[in-house]
Design a protein that fits this description.
Structural class: alpha/beta
Radius of gyration: 27 Å
Number of domains: 3
Number of helices: 20
Number of strands: 15
Length: 550
């Protein structure tokens, strides 16, 4: 019996592109299964042949079986085919992984396919997480059933959001705009998911090479509960303002309860102003809106050595739906600015160059970003300064008009200032080092401040903005990338109920080891493919439209 059921399951995978085939096999199995237990081996073989013949007829009507290409490449969906239209991608993705239930008249997830989504900046996963929630659940009340997020990252990304009145923070987002407002930065999206009710358990796993940064803080395993809410405060004569507060409680480090509490409820609370500066004065209280969200901070080494099974941890709280989230900087992290420092270019010079680039180029899509990344070096190399003529011809200006911040006159004046600066401060070969490093947008076009028009998304030298919270840097060898992926694969083998996998490149924001980024990503995808093969599931790879240089 087991071999027959396995064979039918295999056929379902092969013919999953046909809804008719899927329903037909389901019906055939349900009617035939009670009779098979009384059949001889010869009769069972005849039944299997009948099943193959029926599927062959369906195939002639249009259903295409899977080919024999490498497993990980079978279900790729190239964002370039969608012309940057995220709605088109979602429609294509949803139709590829859902079946129509004729009785309930709703879409239910096809469990033979799992989405593997690649984004550029980590907060961009939120849109896909909420989209997954719409597909996975049936009925209004179940649509809000939360997920456990298992987060492989060199950083926790566990920061508070910038709170403002129009932010739909402590209820389920009602529109795409509500979701975009939550996509503020690459290190605050986890709490956005917690506050809205999407995430009820957060498990962060950090790599071995980060042990020096985190061992003293978190030991091998720190766990506890977090309350999220708001607080009001007033500074001098200003109006009353509202910020976000985060309170930790029942915190245990390697089994020992922490006693470092500061309020009467035995909590440790952090208060963040809307500009994400800490509020340090006494006299404020956290008005809790979302309580008792469980978090776990675990070292990779501890999980592997102790053979900890993540699903066993979740079983205690009856949690079964999981999103696996991987930042590519888990495999290696570098300070991109130090690479240019080695070429004799200091931070002040880079900052000044970015300031002069700021009023020039304002792309709105990754396609425009790609075009400008090639145009800027060409303009910097032109001889317009010596001949005192326009650095931007009429034809080039027309072709790039939508990507420029100003009119042609203002552009040329601002560009002359940039060229004067580069000729004085960045003579060859230092200018060549900057050009080789590349130019990109400050952040994703889907980042909240850009969407809301608070901030221009200008082109700049493609460096990490801000200061990393970690001391450690690690540029792995190819052998180390593979070795680390095998450890991650071992951990993932102990996780059941995975509904979606998201991968963040962290390329534009300068955290991943950029020279090895493509190899890291390919290794991750191959690892996911190996896991899917073992579970008879096929990965549907989706490349987000806002990937750097598309």
């Amino acid at each position: 019996m087991e071999s027959i059921e396995t064979g039918i399951t295999s056929l379902l995978y092969q013919h999953r592109k046909s809804v008719i085939a899927s329903h037909y096999v389901s019906a055939l199995v349900s009617t035939a299964k009670p009779r098979w237990k009384d059949k001889s081996a010869r009769e069972i073989k005849q039944l299997e042949g009948q099943l193959h013949r029926h599927l062959g007829l369906i195939r002639k009507k249009g259903a295409q079986p899977s080919d024999d290409k490498p497993f990980i490449k079978e279900r790729t969906f190239d964002m370039k085919d969608s012309k940057g239209d995220l709605k088109a991608v979602k429609t294509a993705t949803r139709s590829a992984r859902t079946l129509h239930d004729s009785k309930s008249k709703v879409k239910v997830q096809d469990r033979s396919i799992i989405d593997v989504i690649v984004v550029e900046e980590h907060h961009e996963v939120l849109a896909y997480w909420f989209e997954q929630a719409k597909i996975s659940y049936v009925g209004e009340e179940r649509k809000r059933t939360p997920y456990t997020v298992v987060h492989f990252d060199a950083h926790s990304d566990f920061g508070p959001l910038s709170y403002y009145p129009s932010l739909t923070l402590f209820s389920w987002p009602k529109s795409q705009t509500d979701i975009l407002k939550l996509m503020q930065r690459n290190d605050v999206f986890i709490m956005a998911g917690m506050a809205t009710g999407l995430i009820t358990r957060f498990i962060w796993i950090w790599p071995n090479w980060m042990q020096e940064d985190y061992a003293d803080l978190y030991g091998n395993h720190t766990t506890g509960l977090v309350d999220l809410g708001t607080f009001t405060y007033k500074e001098e004569q200003a109006a009353t303002k509202t910020g976000m507060c985060v309170c930790f409680k029942q915190v245990q480090k390697d089994g020992k309860t922490s006693k470092a509490f500061v309020d009467e409820l035995k909590r440790n609370c952090l208060y963040a102003k809307p500009e994400l500066e800490p509020y340090m004065l006494d006299g404020v209280k956290c008005s809790v809106k979302r309580a008792n969200v469980r978090f776990d901070f675990l070292s990779e080494r501890h999980i592997v050595l102790q053979r900890i099974n993540i699903s066993a941890m979740l079983l205690k709280e009856s949690l079964s739906r999981v999103i696996v989230d991987i930042d590519e900087d888990y495999f290696g992290c570098e300070n991109s600015e130090e690479i240019l420092h080695a070429s004799g270019i200091d931070s002040a010079t880079l900052e000044e160059m970015n300031d002069r680039l700021l009023p020039l180029f304002c792309p709105k899509t990754s396609n425009e970003e790609k075009k400008l990344s090639m145009l800027i070096p060409t303009l910097l190399a032109a001889d317009c300064m010596q001949h005192k003529r326009s650095c931007l011809s009429s034809a080039v200006f027309t072709a790039n008009r939508q990507s420029l911040c100003t009119n042609v006159t203002d552009f040329n004046e601002n560009f002359q200032r940039l060229r004067a600066f580069t000729e004085k401060e960045l003579k060859e070969p230092r200018l060549r080092s900057v050009v080789d490093f590349g130019f990109c947008m400050r952040t994703s076009p889907n980042t909240a401040k850009v969407v809301l028009g608070i901030e221009k998304n200008a082109m700049r030298v493609c460096l990490k903005e801000g200061t990393s919270t970690t001391r450690s840097l690690f540029k792995p060898t190819r052998k180390e990338i593979l070795k680390n992926s095998l450890k991650v694969q071992q951990i993932l083998q102990g996780i059941d109920g995975v509904q979606q996998v998201t991968i963040a490149r962290s390329n534009r924001d300068g955290f991943v080891a950029r020279s090895l980024q493509k190899e890291i990503e390919q290794t991750i995808l191959q690892m996911i493919g190996n896991l899917c093969r073992g579970r008879h599931v096929k990965p549907n790879i989706i490349y987000d439209s806002n990937l750097m240089y598309n």
